Give the backbone structure.
Amino acid sequence: MHQTIGIIGVGHVGSAAAAAIIEHNICNTLLLFDSNHIKAEAQSLDLQDMLAFRARNTKIQAVQSIEQLASVNIIINAIGPTGKMQADRLEELSETAASTKEIFPLLMAAGFDGIILNITNPCDVITALIQKITGLPTTRVFGTGTALDTARLKRILAKELAISPTDIHGFVLGEHGESQFVSWSSLTIQMQSPDHFTGLPPLQKLEDDIRRAGWDIFLGKGHTSFGIGMVAATICSHIFTDAHALLPLSVYSQEFTTYIGLPACISANGVSIAKLPPLTPEEAKKLRCSAEIILAATNSC
């Protein structure tokens, strides 16, 4: 199978995703589109230079129109706001929703019928908007959701305990934003509950640190990119390999009638919601409140 990916928006995030895709040899053809065509061409040339050090022949090409992405297997939407990142991702909605409404009708009119992976913030809301515009099945339109937040959870806990992040199993659930939360009741560290580790700071402080992690990165370097780029590349790999791998993504929940970060199984056909781990009453309330925030924002655009 000839595996093709198209990236819409090749700023910091889109280009980081592209670099991770190339580094891990995930597709045969990678097409790049940006409203700034000169930037897209420059990113394409820069990425092609990477191949000189890899025994690969990935075709990397900048395209001039959205319609040229119609035949790819996977679209990664990485449109970013032209202004500064906001502490609350919902504040980016007006601008990113307008770009979404402009671009995706063109893509569908050109005959696109693949999978769409959304990164653009506010992730859950924009993912819902893309699905509404495209009419594609909800199994084939989804977002990176709380996968990155879960990676940050693992990083922060691993540093506190001086262990490997791979020894930590659990999820951040809900909105990729301020109402997200850690499902501490189902999280394990080296097969033990967090209560087993007496050296940990209060769980609420850890949760606040996880929620603030993206903002801390932004304040230091002006953007976030590498982590989310690797998340996007990993999801694409799981699709192409039909991995049936589990990650917390922004997926459509019939229970909440909205997109929200939940454990999802990733395969060649897209995603399906996995069985949710048992939640405490407090966690269940947080999940419902998060869904209500996402739904209200979705209904506003």
In short: Residues 4-143 form a domain with the Rossmann fold fold (CATH 3.40.50.720). The first strand starts at residue 4 and ends at 8. The mean pLDDT is 94. Helices lie at 12-23, 37-50, 93-109, 123-134, 147-161, 203-221, 226-240, 281-299.
